[in-house]
User: What shape does this take?
Amino acid sequence: MTSSRLRPLIAGNWKMNGSRALTTELLTGLSALRGKQPDLAVDLLVCPPAPYLTLAAQLLQGSGIALGAQDCHAKASGAHTGDVAAPMLADCGCSAVILGHSERRADHGESSEHVATKAKAALDAGLTAIVCVGETEAERDRGATLDIVSAQLEGSIPADAEAGRLVVAYEPVWAIGTGKTPTPDDVAVVHAHMRSLLKAWFKDGAEMRLLYGGSVKAANAATLMHVPEVNGALVGGASLKADDFWGIALGAAG
Ligand code: 13P
Assistant: This one.
């Protein structure tokens, strides 16, 4: 099987948005849409803020939609006030966790080395680690995109990762929440590069799903999701409305 035919994963990163009411409305709506087309060949994942995970897990029961979190600590328990451990996420019904998002790298000073320890903790807890990489606008402007992506990938992925439980998301920082996206050709270059690195490092590197993230909407999903080596999307703003998120799933499957 070639990687371009991997079943797409459409993951929604709600970031620091939502409420009990929004969680209920959004997941009820999304479950209904999925229920009408259970055979659509995409996997769906939603990643609400930590306080809403338990409610989300209840709402998603039987829906076929998976639940994930937005971060975890590198340790499984202990004196780390305010942090959340990977086994707790699994206990609350999560099957995945986003790690190393550029907002966490920027807001919390997370290095790639730090992200790798979190990813290891996630794998140890039985979760899928969705590891994010991507260049800033300044890095892109000086032609450093592939160098930055290579270094972040190499530093952030634990050595014992395997295809079933490692997903990489390429999110150019300048495309997040801006309405700007790279051209399909630009995405193809970065994804081909990431694929070749993963194939060199892991025997099942051809099977690891590579998501694109950054201003993905229903209107551009079909184009971006059919770029070679793109196996799905990590969606921010458009994951906060059931119809918009579902529209992206339709674009990926079509
Ligand atoms: P937007 O889809 O809002 O650009 O956010 C992308 C993102 O950061 C997902 O993790």
About this structure: The first strand starts at residue 9 and ends at 13. The beta strands are 9-13, 43-47, 66-69, 96-99, 128-133, 166-170, 209-213, 232-235. The pocket of 1,3-dihydroxyacetonephosphate is lined by residues 13, 101, 171, 176-177, 213-216, 234-238 (CB under 6 Å).
